[in-house]
């Protein structure tokens, strides 16, 4: 079994029928970030510890590992090492062989667990310290407590009942419908389209979910600015991740999703790669803090079911139905 990552390898064992992952997508969180850098540094320390003191565990996990490490930017000793590079290689473990599978059952986004630790514990300690002061100062503990509550609330990942309607196109994000705009031509769809824009405030769930069962056929990532997501210019000037899908149940039907950063959301997470299949309602990424998500559908193939100002839930609300 291949046990050494190809240093600097630009691509995974890709399906030749699909274009390769763009060069500037070197992680599921291509925009980086402070918490991201800290977590990567911790990964180096953890892998050193495992190789030095837990050689049997490393050998066992290597034996159970499936797929290829080609393209991985660092050593992959266990499933934790795939958190930010699952789109760079095909290495994986069967669910029954993953000792960290339980993390997926937590009510929080797995991509945000590091932020919860790095920001949550200092805030919790601050609450304890300030609340131990004499009045009236102890009441100021409500400030770090409110921030802690918002961080926990922001990174929640609730269960959703996914509609089974075969013609349904479900929402890729929680939030409020900010626009329903008809487009004369959209290159990826090679024809007229309808764009449904969803604004996500800092109080919304920020997990993105697949609108339908589909395969990823193309991706594009553009670094950019961080304008308020309510500003129409944000759709053009802000950092975004674009994903083109081919529907699994309707041959020839394509659609696209755009994850757009906002004033506070500066970290886009997308764990997809060209050729990858997703199920309807499946988590595929998130945008950390307030942001915008767009769904672009072929105009003549759908009937839109939502209006501007309507609240929607990712994986649950039907945005449109196929004709």
What do you see in this structure?
The chain has 5 helices and 14 strands. It has helices spanning 34-53, 55-64, 113-131, 142-154, 234-237, and strands spanning 168-170, 175-186, 191-200, 207-209, 214-222, 240-247, 254-261, 267-270, 277-278, 283-288, 291-298, 302-304, 311-312, 318-322. By secondary structure, the protein is α+β, with helices and mostly antiparallel strands. Helices cover 20% and strands 26% of the residues. The strands form 3 sheets. It has an 8-stranded antiparallel beta sheet, with no helix packed on it. It has a 3-stranded antiparallel beta sheet with strand order 1-14-12, with no helix packed on it. It is globular. A hairpin with a 6-residue loop joins β6 (240-247) and β7 (254-261).
Concise synopsis of the structure shown:
This protein is α+β, with helices and mostly antiparallel strands.
What general outline do the C-alpha atoms trace? globular
Q: What is the overall pLDDT average?
A: 89
Q: Order the strands across the largest sheet as they lie in space.
A: 9-5-6-7-11-3-2-13
* Major sheet details: 8 strands, antiparallel
Low-confidence stretches: 1-14
Question: How many strands in all?
Answer: 14
Query: Helix tally?
Result: 5
Determine the oligomeric state from the structure.
Answer: single chain
The helix fraction, in percent, is: 10-25%
Over all CA atoms, what is the radius of gyration?
Answer: 21 Å
Class by alpha and beta content: alpha+beta
What proportion strand?
Answer: 25-35%
Distance between termini? 48 Å
- Order of H and E elements: HHHHEEEEEHEEEEEEEEE
């Amino acid at each position: 079994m291949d046990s050494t990552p190809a240093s600097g390898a630009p691509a995974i064992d890709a399906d030749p029928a699909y274009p390769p992952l763009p060069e500037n997508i070197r992680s599921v969180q291509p925009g980086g970030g402070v918490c991201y850098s800290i977590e990567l540094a911790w990964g180096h320390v953890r892998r050193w510890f495992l190789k030095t003191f837990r050689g049997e565990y490393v050998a066992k996990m290597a034996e159970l590992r499936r797929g290829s490490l080609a393209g991985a930017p660092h050593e992959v000793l266990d499933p934790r090492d795939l958190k930010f590079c699952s789109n760079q290689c095909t290495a994986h473990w069967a669910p029954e062989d993953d000792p960290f599978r339980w993390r997926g059952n937590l009510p929080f986004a797995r991509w945000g667990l590091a932020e919860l630790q790095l920001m949550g514990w200092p805030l919790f300690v601050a609450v304890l310290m300030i609340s131990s002061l004499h009045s009236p100062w102890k009441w100021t503990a409500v400030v770090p407590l409110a921030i802690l509550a918002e961080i926990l609330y922001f990174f929640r990942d609730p269960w959703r009942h996914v509609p089974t309607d075969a013609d349904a196109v479900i929402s890729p994000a929680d939030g409020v419908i900010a626009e329903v705009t008809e487009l004369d031509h959209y290159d990826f769809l090679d024809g007229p389209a309808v764009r449904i824009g969803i604004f996500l405030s800092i109080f919304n769930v920020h997990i993105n979910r697949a609108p339908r069962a589909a395969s990823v056929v193309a991706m594009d990532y553009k670094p950019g600015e961080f304008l308020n997501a309510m500003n129409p210019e944000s759709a053009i000037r802000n950092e975004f991740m674009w994903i083109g899908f081919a529907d699994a149940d309707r041959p020839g039907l394509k659609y696209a999703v755009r994850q757009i950063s906002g004033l506070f959301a500066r970290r886009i997470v997308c764990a997809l790669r060209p050729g990858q299949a997703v199920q309807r309602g499946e988590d595929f990424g998130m945008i950390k803090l307030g942001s915008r998500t767009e769904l672009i559908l072929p105009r003549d193939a759908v009937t839109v079911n939502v209006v501007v100002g309507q609240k929607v839930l990712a994986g649950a609300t039907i945005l449109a139905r196929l004709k």
